């Protein structure tokens, strides 16, 4: 018989370690039936493209347990599908809460299952993940992102070997594998450092960035002499990870009046003046991608 929200809530309190931050979070809502119901009335749904939900403790939330189960279910599907696991799974993430944590958790579980992983070291835009899946000939891709949703949300999007989001039989197969698992099952997990040392986890970064940006710049429809590069451009990445690559492309193409909308509690713009953008003194500032993650999720 299926448990109700209160029973699931109590199960989590009983099963979580005493010092687990999620247990402390759940204790703080004891007696708040509305909050308990919202967190536990259902299990977060793995839909056509993956998971998406508010970060927090509960079956209807994005957290290490729901992310871990989804990853193990995907690992089981990939192993049963008969593909070459050495081709690996490419993993990227954006700037939202827990994105890096969840991406590394997924990498460790996949490596624990003997599946190779290609892991970006810091936030990347979703299209680059799709590009990387194809460029690396990976068997799948995972991106921790919730696209346009509010900052309290995060998501777990899964991609096929062609770089497109999963659908059809692939999606259905992964969903069956995930649903067959219990959130509190113990899944094989290889620590990140061990996975790197054993060659199961490989970091991808600037070389892939350069390939991706070259590909994007190659898609322009007009030659330089037909472009007015003094035109004013205003761009917002919303809650996404597109600010760094788009600014890089604008610099390299010579746009001189490019503005990024920065969410700083008021309307404000970040502006760069594209003078001497090839100057060696500006190498650090104009590095293609920063390798340190952004911990805020309202960029």
In short:
It is built from ten helices and nine strands.
Task: Return the average pLDDT rounded to an integer.
Answer: 87
Helix content: 25-40%
Q: What is the rounded Rg?
A: 21 Å
Q: Specify the biggest β-sheet.
A: 6 strands, mixed
Number of strands: 9
Number of helices: 10
Q: How are the strands of the biggest sheet laid out side by side? A: 1-5-4-2-3-6
What share of residues are in beta strands?
A: 5-15%
Element-level helix/strand string = HHHEHEHEHEEHHEHEHEE
Contiguous low-pLDDT stretches (5 residues minimum) are 264-269, 271-299
Overview of the molecule:
It is built from ten helices and nine strands. With about 300 residues, it is of the alpha/beta class. The strands form two sheets. It has a six-stranded mixed sheet, sandwiched between helices. Strands 7-8-9 form a three-stranded mixed sheet, with helices on one face. Helix 1 packs across helix 3, helix 4 runs parallel beside helix 5 and helix 4 (about 65-80) packs across helix 7. The relative contact order is 0.13. The model is unreliable at about 265-270 and about 270-299 (pLDDT under 50).
């Amino acid at each position: 018989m299926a448990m109700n929200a209160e029973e699931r809530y109590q199960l989590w309190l009983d099963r979580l370690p005493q010092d687990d931050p999620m247990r402390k979070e759940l204790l703080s809502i004891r007696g708040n039936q509305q909050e308990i119901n919202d967190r536990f009335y259902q299990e977060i749904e793995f839909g056509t493209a993956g998971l998406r939900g508010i970060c927090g403790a509960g079956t209807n939330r994005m957290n290490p347990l729901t992310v871990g189960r989804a990853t193990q279910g995907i690992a089981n599907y990939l192993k049963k599908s008969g593909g070459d696991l050495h081709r690996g799974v490419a993993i990227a993430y954006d700037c939202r809460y827990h994105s890096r944590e969840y991406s590394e958790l997924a990498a460790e579980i996949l490596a624990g299952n003997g599946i190779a992983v290609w892991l970006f070291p810091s936030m990347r835009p979703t299209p680059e993940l799709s590009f990387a899946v194809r460029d690396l000939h990976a068997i799948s891709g995972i991106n921790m992102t919730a696209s346009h949703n509010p900052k309290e949300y995060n998501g777990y999007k899964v991609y096929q070997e062609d770089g497109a989001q999963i659908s059809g039989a692939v999606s259905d197969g992964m969903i069956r594998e995930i649903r067959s698992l219990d959130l509190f099952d113990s899944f094989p997990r290889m620590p990140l450092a061990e996975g790197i040392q054993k060659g199961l986890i490989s970091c991808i970064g600037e070389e892939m960035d350069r390939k991706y940006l070259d590909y994007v710049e190659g898609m322009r429809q007009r030659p330089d002499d037909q472009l007015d590069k003094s035109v004013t451009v205003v761009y917002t990445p919303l809650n996404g990870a597109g600010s760094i690559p788009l600014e890089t492309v604008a610099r390299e193409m010579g746009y001189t009046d490019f503005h990024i909308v920065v969410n700083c509690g008021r309307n404000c713009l970040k502006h760069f003046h594209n003078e001497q953008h090839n100057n060696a003194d500006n190498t650090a500032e104009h590095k293609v991608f920063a390798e340190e993650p952004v911990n805020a999720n309202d960029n």
